[in-house]
Amino acid sequence: MLDDHSHDAPVALDLPDDDAGRKRTSIYQPEQAGLIFPEIPEFANHAEAREYRKKHLVAACRAFAMHGFDYGFAGHLTIRDPERPELYWTNPMCVHFSQVRMSNLILADHKGRVVEGRHAINRAGFVLHAAVHDEYPEVMAMCHAHTTYGTAWCATGRPLDMISQDAAAFYNSHAVIGASAGAVAVEKESGLSVAQQIGRNRGVLHQNHGLLTCSHHSIDDAAFWFIALERACKQQLLVEASGIKPQLLSEKTARYSREHVGSDYIGWLHFQTLYNHIAETQPDMFA
Ligand SMILES: [Zn+2]
């Protein structure tokens, strides 16, 4: 391990309530009540919660397709089942991200057994995700894919520099993992050593391999920060390639930015833009 920034404690922001007297936890929540704005849903039962999580997992896969994150069968996204948290929903092996739908998701246990669904599970995916979900009960969701810019930056073995407000979302919440770098994670021991470091960070740059994100909140949050992490790696590579020394954010500014635009809630909120677009333009996702 070359670098390890463990999660800083979240900061409670002191914000005025909205017009209707409802508590606000983010500066993005409108003070003016009655406007169209995404709300975190509340569920009457496990079935409703499960339906929501599955839909948002499918949309996350489709968002990965839109961003060109596919590489053959590589890449896996997981979200815990609300009723049986020892089981998790994931995308089926050898199905393109763009063709993942409600009816082909699979539900698996930590031994890699498919307990619901017809498709096989990605072995590398189950080893890594099961190890993280096992070690960190608070981790709700995880994403991994072999992306172009993320994998390229991971080869440097360096963490991200704080070159932008967007990169600051990962300030003190991402790590570079050198352990079992470049080895395909199909063996249990490899999954465990990497898992112990993944669970403590929002994003992980696994050297000579690729990016991973995990969330204590939702698949929406894990997927959005994955997209953001890939984009941050691309921007870092562009700056490096220019040969011009970048101006970096101060620690104070990076921390301030992360507190305001880098929370789990903000990850979830960003993803609603993608969810609504995909749900409207790709209705086959619900089939
Ligand atoms: Zn991989």
Automatic annotation (TrEMBL):
Keywords: Isomerase. One of its GO terms (cellular component) is cytoskeleton. SUPFAM superfamilies: AraD/HMP-PK domain-like. It is an enzyme of class 5 (isomerase). Residues 1-23 are annotated as: Disordered. Coiled coil: none annotated. Pfam families: Aldolase_II. Its EC number is 5.1.3.15. One of its GO terms (molecular function) is actin filament binding. This is Decarboxylase NovR. It comes from Methylobacterium phyllosphaerae. The lineage of its organism: Bacteria, Pseudomonadati, Pseudomonadota, Alphaproteobacteria, Hyphomicrobiales.
